[in-house]
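Tokens for Translation initiation factor eIF2B subunit beta. Go.
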Amino acid sequence: MDYNKKLNEFLIEIKNGKISGSYDLAKRTVLFVQDLIINTEWTKISDMIEKIQEIGKLFIKIQPTEPVIDNMVKRILKIIREEFNHIRGVRDDEAFDSIINLWPQQQQQQQNQDIDNVNISVVKDSISIAIGELLSELDTSGENIAQQADEHIYWDEVILTIGRSKTVEAFLKYAAKKKRKFQVIVAECSPDNNGHDLAISLAKENINTILIHDSAIFSVMSRVNKVIIGTHSIMANGGIKAVSGTYTLALAAKQYSVPFIVCTGMFKLTPKHLASYDQLAFNKFESSEKVLNYEYSYSVECQVMNPVFDYVPPELITIFVSNIGGTTPSDVYRLLGELYHPADELAI
């Protein structure tokens, strides 16, 4: 199939929301870029980098609220640079402390010249292998997180969560299979109410489950031992972008000194910072009819907003349980330098 046709089809799927879930978006993005790298005759590695950066900009323009797409493009660009440095015998220890100071324009231009002097066929195979390892990381991410459940969930604990996260669901079910007896309180996450689905799923596994309204979160927090949630993305400062209602949950947990645990794969870690507390710039909105039915006569007299996400600052988060183990919000800064290259942050 022609590359432009593949690209247009993929962009339409992203824009129309036909690919649901962060994992599926991440995997489809990696497979698309991998196909581009393998099936294109490159003359210079710098051309490959520039083309992938161009695609990354296009993805962001089409779907700016799904950072995993941008994350995967930048992870692949990091892989290309690492394989290049490996062939040169140079270790890339560029930190993420100061993009401008650590990666000045002259240094970037010099490395681009060095890249062009490397035989493309030598690097292409090693890049394909490294991308295959990235795909394997995505595939095993959920399982690796779930296997850590017995380190965080103990006998007779009361766990509180909100909405339905597939990662949290697998995490809780794994603990139950290890014969841990515990209770789960699920906040329904109105107005989508996908917490209902999680409550039903857990109950089928004989896990003691209670479903509550979001308004009851603060009143039950005093009897909760841990809060365990999933997230849409991890921001560069260690904060998270999670389902609407999570910030309320985090504040209640802070008030009662309850550990706030976030289960997430590292593919959701984004080098982006919270640019603004302005919800129009940060958030995504769904139809307000879920909140106030359009049939009501007074619905035309008020403005109703239905935000999809909440921002939770790092000081409210205890630990991230990820596919690479437990990580505190203060460690996120270090992980960014390991997963992404500052030159790509400037370019995309």
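The beta strands are 158-162, 183-187, 208-212, 226-229, 233-234, 240-243, 260-263, 309-312, 319-322, 325-327.
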